[in-house]
Amino acid sequence: MSDMKPDYKPEEYGYVKDGKVFRKAFLKNKDLEIGIVRETEEKSIQYFVERFLSLREKVEELEKSVDEATNKGSFLMKLLHMKDKMATYKGIGDFEALIERLDKIESRLQENIAENRVKNLEIKEALLKDALALKDSTDWEETAEKMKELRLNWVRTGAVIEDKQEELEQTFHNTVNHFFEEKKKYNEKKRKIIAERSKQYKYLISKVRKLMYEQDKDVIINRIQGIKKDWESVGEIPERLMKSLEGKLAKSIQNLKNPKRRRRIGQHQGNNQRDFQSRPNYRERDSSPRRQAYQGNERNEEEFKKLHEQKSKLLNMALELKELPIDKSLPLARELQDKWLKSGKSTAPEIRSIYNKFRETIALIFEKNHLETEIMKKHTVFSGKSKTEQKIIRISTLKEMIRRDKGEIKLFEDNLNQSGVMENQDRRSQDLISKLRGQKFRLKIKESLLNEIELN
Predict the structure, then answer these.
(1) How confident is the model at residue 448, as a pLDDT?
(2) In terms of C-beta density within 10 A (0-12 exposed, 13-18 middle, 19 or more buried), how is residue 169 classed?
(3) What is the mean pLDDT of residues 141-147?
(4) Which of 28, 195, 281, 385 could form a disulfide with 389 if both were Cys (CB 3.0 to 4.6 A apart)?
């Protein structure tokens, strides 16, 4: 036991009775038994005096921290917890004076919090004004970055005065969400336009290829001119896709100028026609039910309907997993993957569309788990932080993961281009290209997850 000396008389605040140590009543608190006599009464009293002096030092440290801190409001919960402990604290001293001291500190904190909430209101009103000015902008990419920055600043700004809080929060989030919903609609419309235009370009390329069977050069020239004129009127699509289609068009036109290639195709067509027509009953066989079944879908209508229902059910189950905690959704996601593989295959566009949504949904669940794992490596006390702090940590961690992935993808893609892999058709080259597509898909999922976290 130390030799801490009190600046008060211990008997004013505590006493010994029947071998037990008591703390005297104060304010609404009655006399409290706080221990038993060990060795001597004096030493027992001294022990509890020192406990009180230790508590008083903590109050002094708290007061000093509050005076020095910029964000004083962060100490309020600690102060209230300390006040709650007074009623049952085992010590001997002037608790009434200590509580009065804490009351004064609390009063200062409350004043400071009130002032900060007024300042926060001004900041958030300014952020809302900026968001309202941008909400109908059609400069999608630049405005999206500005909106994300506004949303991050909003999260970093503390609470406002209570009667304004709910309305302000709702208006801001509705404003930001309005912009991103419009951006989503625009992108969806743009994707449809690009898909339709790409389809038109491919149709024109197919028209050029069909001219390989045309023998009249004047007809070929006239039709090529018409196709080029139609090509110019289709409309813009992304540069990379346009270059690819222009290359295919140029190659198809070039093939028309190659007499050997045109002659070979013409001969091949003639041979096919003769062989086909020389077969007995070829028309009957071609129109038989069995032949038509093979020329249609891979499965008959009933089987396809059953498969479509199974795949749709698995997709709906996957979508429901998004609402579950990650520790529950992860094993279920793995089970759904196995069920998908066992349910059968089909190249039908309807099944492919369901598969793409299923794949992205499952990948999103795995990516959430990956994110939480990364966070736990760096932030051991993550679960003890507020929801706002957790959101900020998730966003910053995910942005770092995205930045790292983009760097790796660029390096890998540059290496493939330099080594000529992108032009090769061998198995190893195709495996490397497939790996690159996988990396880009995972990056897309991370970006989708970031958008989801930022919007919530």
Answers:
(1) 85
(2) middle
(3) 90
(4) 385
Q: How far is CA 220 from the centre of its chain?
A: 53
DSSP class per residue in 50-106: HHHHHHHHHHHHHHHHHHH-S-GGGGHHHHHHHHHHTTT----S-HHHHHHHHHHHH
CA 364 to chain centre: 8
Gap between the terminal Cα atoms of the chain: 55
Give buried/exposed letters for 197-216 (b at 16+ CB in 10 A, else e): bbeebeebbeebbebbeeee
Cα 454 from Cα 456, distance rounded (Å): 6
C-alpha pair distances (Å), 90 with each of 53, 80, 269 = 11, 18, 102
Contacts of 406 (CB under 8 A, 6+ apart): 443
Mean pLDDT over 250-267 rounds to 67
Give buried/exposed letters for 171-184 (b at 16+ CB in 10 A, else e): ebeebbeebbeebe
Cβ atoms of 375 and 382 closer than 8 Å? yes
This prediction's pTM = 0.45
